[in-house]
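Design a sequence for this backbone.
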């Protein structure tokens, strides 16, 4: 009987330790995703909630554009330890933010493609605006290579007619 009690107590302790490890890992994932959203130039991290359970990240909140919703999902997917992303973010239909309401669908598509490439290639600080196929790049990047790469990505995106590169390089 005593051995059975010791065995049960040991199993309960191991289950608690395993649960605490998982909770710690989930907390670390949540923190990483929130940090990436905060430094990302194209997401409003204050309006995006992040919850993690067993490596599965759930995003909720409201953002002004479909491109921002996709960007947040991409950031979460590219975070170490994430096994799945559930994107429950809603896009505000009455947005007047950057490239909000009234923007042509083609411009939104261009914007989304450029932002996705920036995330994939680690370009941080570049802000993108698109109007009638003309891309305007603004913001601050860490080096001249990032500025050149940001422009190159924009120019290579289908549907882009011209690129105005107003990005400033941080010294």
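Sequence:
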């Amino acid at each position: 009987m005593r051995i059975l009690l010791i065995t049960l107590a040991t199993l309960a302790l191991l289950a608690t330790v395993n649960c605490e490890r998982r909770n710690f890992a989930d907390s670390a994932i949540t923190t990483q995703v929130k940090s990436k959203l905060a430094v990302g130039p194209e997401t409003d991290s204050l309006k995006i909630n992040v919850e993690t359970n067993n490596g599965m990240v759930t995003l909720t909140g409201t953002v002004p554009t479909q491109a921002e919703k996709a960007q947040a999902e991409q950031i979460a997917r590219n975070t170490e330890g994430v096994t799945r992303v559930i994107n429950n973010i809603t896009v505000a239909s009455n947005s007047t933010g950057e490239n909000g309401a009234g923007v042509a669908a083609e411009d939104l598509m261009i914007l989304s493609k450029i932002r996705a490439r920036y995330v994939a290639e680690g370009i941080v600080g570049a802000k993108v605006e698109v109007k009638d196929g003309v891309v305007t790049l603004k913001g601050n990047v860490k080096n001249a290579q990032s500025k050149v790469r940001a422009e190159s990505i924009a120019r290579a995106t289908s549907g882009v007619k011209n690129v105005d590169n107003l990005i400033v390089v941080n010294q």
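Strands lie at 48-53, 56-63, 84-91, 126-131, 134-141, 162-165, 168-169.
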